[in-house]
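README, section 4: Worked example with a bound small molecule

Sections 1 through 3 covered apo chains. Here we extend the same pipeline to holo records, where the ligand is supplied as SMILES alongside the sequence. The molecule in this example is zinc ion. Nothing else about the input changes; the structure line simply encodes the ligand pose together with the chain.
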Amino acid sequence: MRSRAGSIGFLCLLAAISAAQEDGIGDPTFPTLGNRGYLASHYGLKINYNPSTNLLKGDVTMEAVAKTELSTFSLDFSGFTISAVKLNGAAVPYERTPSKLRIKPTTAIAKDAKFSLETVYSGNPQVAQSAALPTGMTSGWITYAGGAVAVCEPDLAHTWFPCNDHPRNKATFDIDVTTPSPYIGIANGIATTVSSGKSHFVLDKPSMTCMAVVAFGKYGTFKQVGPNNLPITNYLPPGTETQYIQPLQITPKFMQYLSDRIGSYPFSSYGTIILPKEVEKANTLMAGSAIETTSIPVFGPEGSSSPEVLCHELTHQWIGDCVSITNWGDDIWWVEGFAQYSEWLLTELTDGKEAYIKKVKSAYDQFSAPGHWLKPGHLATQDVFGQQSYIGGALTFHALRRTLGDAKFFQTVKEFIAKNRYGNASVKDWIEVASKVSGQDMTSFFDEWLNSSTAPKLPG
Ligand SMILES: [Zn+2]
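The generated complex, written as structure tokens:
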């Protein structure tokens, strides 16, 4: 994620977490989120949405494997009226709480058994408040005059479809989006059909639930070709082509730059969704933010044409989407930190080494001042998208590059991605890879940068 100010900021209040009777997946940042009893492998989403009436009709089938015997299990889901829930094709008893859909099979599901769960529902989707974002900065299903978009990082995917809503459970998706003409629907992955009416998208690599996206509205397309003939489709509000086509030229260039250094682009397609000006009136967050939804990030109308923001979200496809966090509070520094660092790499690429050093020093001077440094390694829920994730994380990568040298630094990033491709990782994976590549134990380097109460000295 990237906001106008570079991060969401500090003005957060932790929303009260409801009593934790529900079985969470085990992330202390969001104790009640997810379920550890099963792993979803695929979501088939059929989303019918009419921007004129704000009516959503959903039919979602989750395919999963039981990790233990399941006499009951839950999905994260809030809002809407459910008309049917079917386990392996047959109606199944269920209960609802404000944020959980609890399934009560008449016969327990055996450990290691595959099962499918279909939920049919309808209603008016609404924005929601994440405890990780400042109070009043709502996200989730955002409606505006003439359209809607679902942007759900970190914990709001379940406000529009039932799911195991934590990055530890990544899954593939196929998404049908149906909407009346003249609107179109857009979603993650390869578009097998796109029309006003019904379109189908396939994401054949696993994604976090919070990085699933659908958008509805009036859009034109601008197509590009990336390295290895990768198809790139940009969805632009009609009449904005002259504003965006020039800035979007950076995408294939920076994709090549990253591919040369940290490995080939990890998904089967890429693209952008650039939201229209109408969003500004409806939602503070997406007026000026961008989010790295898998294979097709979403950009608010302000800042969308900034090369830094375009490259930030592109970089997240490797770090964040392809390799994802294990715990939000412990791992977000390397996700946002590397995306922020990629903005400094872009500066180095376009304006030279001196301009790069100037940016690093400016960030360091600002954040190393007494009282400004927060340990990036273990962030509280309200600090997950604070400046320390971005700047503290980016400075850690700069320091790592200075310590290892260019070749070993990029080799470390490349091997970290290759080793954890399409899965989840944590700090121990960074330490392990950096130590292997450098031939020295890097534990104390990461401990100093991630856990010191004051800013470590900048090497070099
Ligand atoms: Zn980001």
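What to look for in the output: The longest helix spans residues 328-351. The chain has eleven helices and 21 strands.

Section 5 describes how to batch many such records.
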